[in-house]
TrEMBL record:
Keywords, comma-separated and alphabetical: Signal
PANTHER family: IRON(III) DICITRATE-BINDING PROTEIN (PTHR30535:SF7), VITAMIN B12-BINDING PROTEIN (PTHR30535)
Signal peptide range in chain numbering: 1-30
Keyword Signal: yes
Protein name as it appears in the record: ABC transporter substrate-binding protein
Limits of the Fe/B12 periplasmic-binding domain: 61-335
Similarity annotation: Belongs to the bacterial solute-binding protein 8 family.
SUPFAM superfamilies: Helical backbone' metal receptor
Amino acid sequence: MSVTRIRPAAALAGTLCLALALTGCGARVAAPSGDGKATGQHPVTLENCGKKVTYDKVPERVVTNDVGITEIMFALGLEDRMAGYVMPDDKGDLDHVPWKGAYKKTKWLSKGAITKEMAVDAHADLVFAGWGYGFGENGATPASLKKLGIDSYVLTESCRNGHGSARGVMPPLDALYTDLDRLGKLFGVQDRAQELIADFKSRVADVRKKAPKGAARPSVFLYDSGQDKPFTAGRYAAPDDIIAKAGGRSVTHDLADSWTTVGWETVVERDPDVIVINDYGDTSAARKKDFLLHYKPLANVSAIKHRRIITLDYADLVESPRNPSAIERLGAYLR
């Protein structure tokens, strides 16, 4: 997704809570088993978006772009390794997320996308961003940063797959687990990474046990934005896996891309039982819902007729440690 503005909204206060170990609600994350300090042998060579990348040392001044990427670092307990994060100014109520303390300890650098100049000014030795999540041909790229002596790690959800600008090389949750595993190796926090992966997989498995099966699985459309044409999620964006693991079927699973645009005729033809609204952008979720309910071409779509519409937050629906919580909440709604 191309990030311009995030509206995680006050709804986070009701859906997320500050979590310790495996208690509470929302984006539950196990407490770090260590102090988060990097250890291990370097150089380390990792595969990132199909390329072998060698890192000569443990990064000490990381700059991240966007909320999901930043919270991956926080979930790994690596806030002490960060020079700062780049994120729009409407980040939602961060007093009710598990990483409240990490946000307070880490410098907010800018509300715009990452730039080469920003990375240099922050004395960054690594930029963790993604294509459409800070990296773009008209701004900072891994290649342009490398010329400045700054390493990069590209968010796996955003990897380009060789078909133009299309993104996505693996199922979305696999992308999250891949990044946790590889970043764990890079920073020498493998135990913490594996704890997170095991916890996330266990929680997702619990939801799948309760989820509808076969023909009972409801069809679901993810609505991000757009009135002339809807912006939605293909099979390589996080909502596709969130919907599937929660017990639904994404009506745009056949699109070999991450975030992309379709026509309203596609939505009408595929007649989703449920619509998930992405609470993101300058248009509120309430206004998006009102538009959908009163847009005449959708009048006979099942989700509209039965008012089966649920809102999830932007940070739930991009690759992030909030994905398992989103699966749990959507799963409860679909049941």
